[in-house]
Design brief:
Elements (H helix, E strand, L loop, with lengths): L1 E7 L7 H9 L7 E5 L8 H8 L6 E4 L9 H13 L3 E4 L10 H34 L12 H17 L3 H8 L4 H10 L2 E3 L6 E3 L11 H11 L1
Parallel strand pairs: 1-2, 1-3, 3-4
Antiparallel strand pairs: 5-6
Helix pairs in contact: 3-4, 5-6, 5-7
Amino acid sequence: MKFGYVRISTKSQNPNLQIDALLKEGISEKNIYSDVSSGAKAERHDLDLMISRLREGDTVIVWKLDRIARSISHLLKLVDQFEKLDVKFRSISDPFIDTTSAHGKFIITLFGAVAQLERDIIIERTTAGLKSARRRGIQLGRKKGLGKEAKQKAMLAASYYKENKLPIVDIMKLVGIKSKPTLYKYLAIQGRRNCKECGVIFWDTNQEMEQAFCKKHFKRNEKSRD
């Protein structure tokens, strides 16, 4: 069975040119699926619906490649999906894209090689750029620390926690923090620590969280290192 797919970018556009071309290919009007969606948009209801109804031996036909595929990588994913279903794919305006022929399959293979080469080049350039940045001492990723508003929240949260000894839930409501992990992150920045030895909570901004020791066990660990 033959299926056709039509896409226009906006409702003001007319899909009749595409539909007429598909009808000439002998596709029944009930088997023509259409979407109103921009080329960059991933969500396409009728395309997904059509694919769900495909069966072994069917053929999908489009007027032009850009009507169904957003990019080469998207085209390759679709063709791979069709192959797994044992479904053929053909483009009327791009006769070199025709998986019913050996030549068409070869072109798809070339597209795959080009897409892989493009991915490899991007990875290579990104890796080289990161190494170059590190050599120059440039800090990568998100900057450490908190913004002005977050710092104020951290200080206020620590104050409520240390001085007023309020429950965690109440502190979150008062300060305007939505999650416990965020609250504990703020408290840690303000110096909240759990002793690695006994688990007791204490405050010390000079010690790392993973290697923090209370006064009782700090000296003992210093001696063991000596």
